[in-house]
């Protein structure tokens, strides 16, 4: 046995399938991350394309912007729904807050790619610095989303008068404030359901990402990657984090622009 | 592989200024496209033209994120295509479900 103890992948007995090879010139971890992300792309695509399908199955709001009232008869215009900003109660600021959130997430993607670049150079202090910025960006984005959800659920001061079938099966007409899975003051029930489902699923990914970023930040800081001899983990977690940004780009367009 | 409990022998290389410049340039492009989308949302009439532009700009942004940030462009061609080619299925899903949605609209309203 010991006669064959050459380096992994070199032995003729091991051959191509013996392990230790890098098919497609990418390491096992990176390949698996890419194929996981591909499957995740399909999951998000199914959600977002369903959103499009349900959206076109309802009439769009056609009136003037300043007379907009929510109704379950037509799909709302997003810039008339998402127009609140923290600390500025009652100020009409369409899409400003979600613009800030988008900016934060793109910025954290930039600091992530800078961390990956530092990892290629084995530069521990740069990796730690950029990972920390990325981590901060992720936590800030999640906090913003928490506020956004809270505002969406509690609703506006005025609410909307809607006729709908409540959870007891009764047909009621009343002023509705905010949103839940049965009724919402902005548009058809499907509008809030899709909002909760899709931004919630994305937010769940961001939450997982923040945990991974912290793990990576911590391990880089205490020198695990220096001992391991490479910073590939930064690259793999970077792939995941960029994917979260990638999905947000689509969520932003479909939910907030169209 | 076991982690050896020895002092690191990794050589820290100097910053690759060219690469870093390219990262910031890509960030600038992403930001510019987003700002353009914002301006369009408030200045153009809502309709199929605006929506088509939004989706094209979004795919353009996605291209930058995947190629520059995720370095998919630097991978070998077989890996590149095994990620990109399956996405072609989504084109059909978009066409099929938008048709489905508009037919439901015609039935319902």
TrEMBL record, chain A:
GO molecular function, one term: cytochrome-c oxidase activity
Pfam families named in the record: COX3 (PF00510)
Domain of life: Bacteria
Gene3D superfamilies associated with the record: Cytochrome c oxidase, subunit III, four-helix bundle
Classification via InterPro entries: Cyt_c/ubiquinol_Oxase_su3, Cyt_c_oxidase-like_su3, Cyt_c_oxidase_su3-like_sf, Cyt_c_oxidase_su3_a-hlx
Similarity section: Belongs to the cytochrome c oxidase subunit 3 family.
Name of this chain's protein: Cytochrome c oxidase subunit 3
Automatic annotation (TrEMBL), chain B:
GO cellular component terms listed in the entry, alphabetical order: plasma membrane
Subcellular localization: Cell membrane
Keywords: Cell membrane, Membrane, Transmembrane, Transmembrane helix
UniProt entry tagged with the keyword Glycoprotein: no
Keyword flag Transmembrane helix: yes
Membrane topology according to the record: Multi-pass membrane protein
Transmembrane segments: 48-66, 78-98
Pfam families listed in its UniProt record: COX4_pro
Record protein name field: Cytochrome c oxidase subunit IV
Organism: Algoriphagus aquaeductus
């Amino acid at each position: 046995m010991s006669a064959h103890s050459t380096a992994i992948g070199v032995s003729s007995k091991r051959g191509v399938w013996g392990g230790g090879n890098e098919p497609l010139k990418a390491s096992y971890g990176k390949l698996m991350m890419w194929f996981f992300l591909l499957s995740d792309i399909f999951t998000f695509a199914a959600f977002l394309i369903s959103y499009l399908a349900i959206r076109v199955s309802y009439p769009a709001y056609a009136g003037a912007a300043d007379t907009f009232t929510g109704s379950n008869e037509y799909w709302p215009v997003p810039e008339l729904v998402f127009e609140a900003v923290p600390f500025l109660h009652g100020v009409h600021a369409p899409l400003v807050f979600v613009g800030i959130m988008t900016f934060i997430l793109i910025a954290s993607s930039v600091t992530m790619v800078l961390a990956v670049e530092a990892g290629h150079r084995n530069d521990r202090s740069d990796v730690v610095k950029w990972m920390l910025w990325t981590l901060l960006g992720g936590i800030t984005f999640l906090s913003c989303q928490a506020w956004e959800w809270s505002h969406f659920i509690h609703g506006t001061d005025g609410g909307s008068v809607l006729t709908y079938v409540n959870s007891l099966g009764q047909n009621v007409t009343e002023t509705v404030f905010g949103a839940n899975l049965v009724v919402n003051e902005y548009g058809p029930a499907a509008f809030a359901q899709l909002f909760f489902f899709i931004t919630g699923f994305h937010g769940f990914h961001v939450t997982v990402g923040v945990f991974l970023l912290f793990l990576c930040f911590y391990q880089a800081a205490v020198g695990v990657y220096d001992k391991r001899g490479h910073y590939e983990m930064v690259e793999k977690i970077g792939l995941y984090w960029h994917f979260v940004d990638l999905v947000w780009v689509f969520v932003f367009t479909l939910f907030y622009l169209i | 592989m076991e982690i050896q409990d020895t002092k690191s022998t990794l050589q820290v290389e100097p910053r690759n200024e060219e690469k870093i410049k390219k990262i910031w340039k890509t960030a600038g492009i992403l930001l510019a496209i987003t700002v353009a989308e914002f301006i369009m949302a408030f200045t153009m009439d809502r309709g199929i033209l605006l929506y088509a532009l939004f989706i094209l700009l979004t795919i353009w942004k996605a291209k930058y994120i995947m190629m520059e940030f995720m370095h998919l462009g630097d991978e070998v061609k077989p890996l590149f295509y095994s990620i990109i080619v399956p996405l072609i299925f989504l084109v059909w899903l978009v066409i099929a479900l938008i048709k489905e949605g508009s037919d439901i609209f015609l039935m319902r309203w």
